[in-house]
Amino acid sequence: MEPLSVTYFASGRLSRRVDIGVLEMYACFETVLRPRCAVARFDEGSIRVNASGSVSVSAASVEDVEGILGWAEDALSRVLGPTEVVSWEVTNVSAVSSLGRRVDLMEVHRGLPRGVSDYDPEYHPALVVRMGDGLVASVYSNGSVSITGGRSLEDIQKGLDGLERIVSTL
Q1: pTM for the complete prediction?
Q2: pLDDT tens-digit readout, 152-170
Q3: pLDDT of 22
Q4: CATH class label, 6-92
């Protein structure tokens, strides 16, 4: 099973605190006063800049994350003076995929060891499967799957392959 879409989440730190009030004057940023942050959105993803100097990015690839952080350095340096991204890391990778068939969620839930999955259709329409190494998958009866908690695309692919093996044996 291949991921249909992937999102990388990264967090980092700027070399300075940010005066969000100053960014309110620039159309490229949407500002939110509580909590004090500014958001810029792109076709490739988005960045959130906090007054404390922390940043968070979501994008479709690591290259897009790097590009958005580079844009932020340039834009913030022009507005606030020299500003650099001093550190950042990918903190989460999530993906959406499909098993390509309907799934009897109760049957899969009953076939898994106790404590590995949760299924309560009155509360949430998906079977939630904890796959180890921080990966959590939500499987819907139509075969749609969302998986999160990876640190790389390889982690996500291993999780999807494992989930496909689990569902195909039940």
Answers
A1: 0.90
A2: 999 999 999 999 998 887 7
A3: 87
A4: alpha beta
